[in-house]
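Appendix C: a fully annotated inverse folding record. The material below is reproduced so that readers can follow the format used throughout the book. The structure is listed first as tokens, followed by the designed sequence.
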């Protein structure tokens, strides 16, 4: 669907060069290449002109080797937002931005996109994936892969495969039948490999049908044999657990390094005849091929031109446009766009308006150099005298990291924090000034000599109030405030995912009443230990903002809403509710937010509810709200984009890529917890809207937001669709008063008489149409032959069943034309 194709055709000359280079390596040299050199790098090999390759997480921005404020990154909208735009051209462009960011940071491989299926809304990484629909996931993911790889950077579709929820993700055994695996979970990967030409794929932590993915036969077939994947299978971090089993499997690269179960043990296994040298050669060759493609091999020209960094304005402009185009307007009873000419007084309500969530938590997190909050964006657009703010309820009591505005270095006086690494004998190993209290060192060599990490800062209260100061981290900590010991002990919650315990650790906070300008000195001492084999230090030194009496704050917000022309309530999830490493326990908004929305709606009927979440939430007030807008995690330009949409400068361009339920009871797949280590995908092909359709046919409930739904600011009329061969043509007219975007969706179903079980209907294509007021155009969608096929478990092949099929067209799964039948 993208205009540019970047599928790499293996260059025969390159193949000859890398084969010859491989010949020059000893067994030890080859095996060395198969494990990372560090947390984020691969080994170089100067003998053959092989450079170090740096890899970095890439679904929503490229972090680089540092995971902190010193190395800021463009923060893209969450993948849910990208998918909601349905716009492959823009997703391609965002992929190019990823590549430009990667090159700017010396990164050659982006660890993304995440194309697991949104099987259950409880999935903790829902925000990081695209859709519940395999076809849409594959198409969007492929555009992203092509965009990244068109600029000399490798893309890594992940996590292969069936890593669709987080509970026990390291050990869970997903039990899924062959047909479902092919049609739902492998399908997006297949497209990204065969059409997108992905240069890497990441194997997941979980098992599928009894075998962990780094040892699973699926890596060989279909991935390598059938689909022709000639790139590198990189493990998820610490996913390779067995020297021989992963050695003989089609797993190529074990990350991170330098330790791991391969290395010398793998050399020995080869010498002992447990793993063949041909297996090692095959893996090493793939790594050299990747190096060649991204320009890390002296004798080989990169496969595509290497990206140049982008100017800041170009980044900001694209991210603002993309954020707006992913926003889904769920309903609008004439309230939006706001009439800016009347200079409305706007009450901006909700903590998320000020401490917005631009991105999801976990390994996808980046450090943007700025985030335009909704409050800042609306103030900029409508004027400081027209916009007033009230938080209403405390949605999150997460620790805010100290920064240059709130803290100063006690040693140098500069804004920020002072950090020292001390050896056993008290020797200072590292001494540095930092701009933030959110501190991370992953696999840093300095940790080898370090016994204590000390962080000190002077915190200055911005206003009078009841603050709390403290830290969040995992392991041994000692915390003092103005020399007084507040805490000393081991903090390590049991049974948590080791990675996520690092990324989302428990906090300890101590109340302190301060007046504006008053200063306290904070000192945190941390004794790093190897946790789960990871040499890492990660903690936050920070504070909690004062929050007046809850009932008062709620009243203040309600009064502000009542006294304004319009209220914009921004609600959303928190890092504690929605993040990598765990699944959601429920789909409710944080406590108090539903009540806040209800009260504000009652106080001012002209209220827009803005939902800032990465995945579905239950909206019990939906019927009462005149306008509801979903922003997802919209990236660093979120506030500007929100102002554009509310003010009508841009249309909200999103169509929902995953069904949202009205109540938790209605959710088709609720359970994500394995039973005796196994998670059964019993719903088979009926994931998402397919299951909703099946149930509705039997009298079941309708969802709150049907798949594909989303409003713009104009009206559309669809004419009668026609079908010629497999091409559907639909006349569409913009009958409203302004230019707009429509996503014309095409669904297939099988008329009766099929001997194969089929979903009630399935998405088979779509066209994004843009038209001026009054303009007519024809949307054309060509259905791929594969969309008619099913995977036959008898033949282990794709089969087109002869018979009658039906095509239906519309603006969502719940607004479809009558069927056009055709016979195959
Ligand atoms: C995540 C991967 C990520 C890796 C490196 C893992 O915990 O599952 O998606 O690429 O960490 O950060």
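Designed amino acids, in order:
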């Amino acid at each position: 669907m993208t205009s540019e194709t970047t599928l790499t055709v293996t260059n025969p000359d390159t193949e000859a060069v890398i084969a010859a280079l491989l010949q020059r390596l000893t067994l030890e040299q080859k095996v060395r290449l198969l494990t990372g050199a560090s947390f984020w790098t691969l080994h170089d090999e100067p003998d053959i002109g092989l450079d170090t390759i740096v890899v970095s997480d890439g679904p929503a921005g490229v972090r680089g080797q540092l995971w902190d404020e010193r190395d800021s990154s463009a923060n893209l909208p969450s993948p849910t937002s990208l998918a909601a735009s349905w716009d492959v051209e823009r997703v391609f462009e965002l992929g190019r931005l990823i590549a430009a960011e990667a090159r700017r940071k010396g990164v050659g491989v982006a660890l993304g996109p995440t194309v697991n299926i949104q099987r259950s809304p409880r999935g903790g990484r829902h925000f990081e994936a695209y859709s519940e629909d395999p076809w849409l996931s594959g198409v969007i993911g492929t555009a992203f892969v092509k965009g990244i790889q068109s600029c000399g950077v490798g893309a890594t579709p992940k996590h292969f495969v069936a890593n669709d929820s987080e509970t026990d993700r390291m050990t869970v055994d997903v039990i899924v039948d062959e047909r479902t695996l092919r049609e739902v979970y492998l399908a997006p990967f297949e497209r990204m490999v065969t059409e997108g030409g992905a240069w890497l794929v990441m194997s997941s932590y979980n098992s599928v049908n009894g075998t962990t993915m780094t040892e699973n036969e699926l890596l060989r077939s279909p991935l390598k044999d059938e689909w022709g994947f000639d790139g590198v299978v990189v493990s998820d971090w610490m996913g390779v657990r067995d020297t021989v089993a992963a050695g003989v499997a089609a797993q190529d690269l074990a990350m991170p390094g330098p330790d791991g179960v391969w290395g010398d043990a793998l050399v020995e296994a080869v010498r002992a005849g447990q793993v063949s040298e041909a297996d090692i050669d095959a893996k090493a060759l793939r790594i050299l091929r990747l190096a060649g493609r991204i320009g890390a091999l002296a004798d080989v020209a990169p496969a595509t031109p290497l990206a140049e960094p982008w100017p800041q304005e170009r980044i900001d402009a694209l991210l603002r446009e993309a954020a707006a185009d992913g926003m889904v307007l769920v309903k609008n009873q004439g309230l939006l766009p706001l009439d800016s000419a009347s200079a409305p007084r706007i009450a901006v309500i909700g903590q998320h308006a000020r401490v917005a969530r631009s991105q999801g938590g976990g390994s996808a997190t980046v450090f943007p150099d700025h985030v335009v909050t909704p409050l800042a964006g609306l103030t900029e657009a409508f004027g400081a005298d027209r916009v007033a703010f009230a938080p209403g309820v405390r949605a999150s009591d997460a620790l805010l990291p100290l920064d240059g505005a709130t803290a100063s270095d006690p040693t140098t006086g500069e804004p920020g924090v002072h950090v020292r690494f001390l050896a056993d004998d008290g020797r200072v190993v590292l001494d540095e000034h930092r701009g933030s209290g959110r501190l991370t060192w992953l696999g840093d060599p300095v940790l080898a000599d370090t016994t204590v990490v000390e962080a000190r800062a002077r915190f200055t209260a911005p206003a009078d109030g009841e603050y709390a100061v403290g830290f969040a981290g995992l392991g041994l900590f000692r915390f003092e405030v103005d020399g007084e010991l507040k805490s000393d002990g081991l903090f390590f919650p049991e049974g948590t995912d080791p990675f996520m315990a690092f990324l989302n650790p428990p906090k300890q906070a101590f109340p302190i009443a301060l007046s504006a300008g008053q200063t306290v000195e904070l000192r945190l001492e941390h004794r790093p230990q190897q946790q789960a084999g990871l040499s890492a230090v990660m903690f936050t030194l920070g504070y909690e903002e004062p929050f007046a009496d809850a009932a008062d704050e709620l009243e203040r917000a309600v009064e502000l809403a009542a006294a304004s022309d319009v209220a914009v309530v921004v609600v959303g999830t928190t890092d504690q509710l929605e993040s990598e490493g765990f699944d959601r326990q429920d789909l409710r908004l944080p406590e108090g937010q539903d009540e806040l929305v209800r009260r504000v709606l009652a106080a001012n009927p002209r209220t827009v509810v803005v939902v800032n979440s990465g995945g579905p939430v239950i909206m019990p007030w939906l019927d009462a709200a005149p306008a509801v807008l979903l922003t997802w995690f919209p990236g660093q330009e979120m506030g500007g984009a929100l102002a554009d949409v509310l003010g009508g400068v841009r249309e909200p361009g999103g169509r929902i890529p995953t069904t949202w339920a009205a109540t938790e009871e209605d959710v088709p797949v609720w359970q994500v917890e394995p039973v005796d280590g196994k998670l059964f995908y019993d719903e088979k092909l009926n994931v998402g809207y397919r299951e909703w359709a099946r149930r509705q046919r039997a009298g079941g409930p309708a969802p709150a937001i049907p798949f594909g739904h989303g409003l713009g600011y104009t009206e559309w009329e669809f004419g009668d669709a026609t079908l010629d061969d497999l091409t559907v043509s639909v006349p569409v007219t913009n009958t409203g008063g302004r230019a707009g975007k429509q996503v014309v969706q095409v669904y297939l179903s099988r008329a009766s008489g099929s001997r194969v079980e089929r979903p009630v209907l399935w998405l088979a294509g779509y066209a994004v149409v843009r038209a001026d007021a009054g303009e007519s155009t024809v949307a054309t969608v060509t259905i791929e032959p594969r969309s008619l096929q099913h995977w036959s478990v008898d033949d282990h092949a794709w089969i087109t069943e002869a018979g009658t099929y039906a095509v239906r067209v519309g603006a969502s799964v719940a607004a479809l034309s009558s069927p056009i039948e055709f016979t195959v």
